[in-house]
Automatic annotation (TrEMBL):
Residues 5-56 form the PHD-type domain. Its main location: nucleus. This is Lysine-specific demethylase 7B. It comes from the Eukaryota. One of its GO terms (biological process) is chromatin organization. It is found in: Nucleus. Belongs to the JHDM1 histone demethylase family. JHDM1D subfamily. GO terms for cellular component: nucleus. GO terms for molecular function: dioxygenase activity; zinc ion binding. The gene is JHDM1DB. SMART domains: JmjC (SM00558), PHD (SM00249). Residues 198-334 form the JmjC domain. Keywords: Chromatin regulator, Dioxygenase, Iron, Metal-binding, Nucleus, Oxidoreductase, Transcription, Transcription regulation, Zinc, Zinc-finger. It comes from Crenichthys baileyi.
């Protein structure tokens, strides 16, 4: 049996689980971690030269930026193509717009008032904002808990998915690399982390979800202990975003209810009611080939702006359309 071909400076076989980049000169493949090229940076390289070819042929050639309003920034800026979601032009336009206040639909309650009895009696049809946590059953680390603490409790080697906001595209990196990026004063890109599930880490011991979420969770209450499929980890997510992070409209987890707590920073949600008309509009918008060029909030009668400040918990009911945004004064958040 023939031996597997060896690649990279480390002379290891090709590994589909790790990001690799091909040298445009010698055509060898290299692990990004071995040649110090992160996955989200690779998209900016036009012609890649590996360390050996760099000596003979000079450094890699980078793509040239021609616009600030398209996911592909190499497209010519001839005024013929509309602004796409997440780009710097889009973010500036979003900041300048006015929206109806979410106070029109928001229910403000104390933690002790948010019970299964209340929701069963009155329903859960509108977002609930809570600033007084007593009685909610929510346990959290203190506001001094930092992103470096997250790294310590979760582990820096954990591979995570981050969103390159300007391209609205995912890439993988180690948590330690993201924390290093997050703590820099100058960030050439806006990267957003929204999918760090930490139920199986040491950080899980620091967080208890609200009582109402545990009592009404189908996964917690109805998942068979003897199921062939393991119980999914969907209760505890840590979101970390920097200024101008934007996530386009979506329905959380296939229509589930969700809760958010802003430990520090500030987060803005744009909320749309899940009416039959809006559901039909969302279906058409989400399957459209030019989805990124159309702000879904423009398709509906009302899109509400909900500013969630530090120390506030927000409960969002089933199927509400949500888009998230971090903005102003570099209010990065967790």
């Amino acid at each position: 049996m023939a031996a597997a071909p060896l690649y990279c400076v480390c002379r290891q076989p090709y590994d589909v689980s790790r990001f690799m980049i091909e040298c445009d000169i010698c055509k060898d493949w290299f692990h990004g971690s071995c040649v110090h090229v992160e996955e989200h940076h690779a998209v900016d390289i036009d012609v890649y030269h590996c360390p050996n070819c760099d000596v003979k042929h000079g450094p890699s050639l980078m793509k040239r930026r021609n616009n600030w309003h398209r996911h592909d920034y190499t497209e010519p800026d001839d005024g013929s193509k509309p602004v796409q979601a997440g780009t710097s032009v889009f973010v500036k336009q979003l900041q300048q717009r006015t929206f109806p206040s979410a106070e029109e639909i928001l229910i403000r309650m104390k933690g002790e008032q948010v019970t299964t009895r209340y929701l069963e009696r009155h329903g859960f049809n509108y977002p609930i904002a809570i600033t007084e946590m007593e009685g909610l059953g929510l346990k959290l680390p203190p506001p001094t808990f930092s992103v470096k603490d997250v790294e310590q409790y979760v582990g820096g080697d954990k591979v995570i998915d981050v969103i390159d906001v300007a391209r609205q595209a995912d890439s993988k990196m180690k948590l330690s690399e993201f924390i290093k990026y997050f703590t820099k004063h100058h960030r050439p890109k806006v990267l957003n982390l929204i999918s760090l599930e930490f139920s199986d880490t040491k950080m899980s011991e620091l967080v208890e979800v609200p009582d109402v979420a545990k009592k009404m969770s189908w996964v917690e209450n109805y998942w068979p202990d003897d199921s062939f499929f393991p119980k999914p980890f969907v209760q505890k997510y840590c979101l970390m975003g920097v200024k101008d992070s934007y996530t386009d409209f979506h329905i959380d987890f296939g229509g589930t209810s969700v809760w958010y707590h802003v430990l520090w920073g500030e987060k803005i949600f744009y909320l749309i009611k899940p009416t039959p008309t809006n559901l039909a509009l969302y279906e058409a918008w989400s399957s459209s080939p030019n989805q990124s060029e159309v702000f879904f909030g423009n398709k509906v009668d009302k899109c509400y702006k909900c500013v969630v400040t530090q120390g506030t918990t927000l409960l969002i009911p089933t199927a509400v359309f949500v888009t998230g945004f971090l903005q102003s004064l570099d209010k990065s958040g967790i």
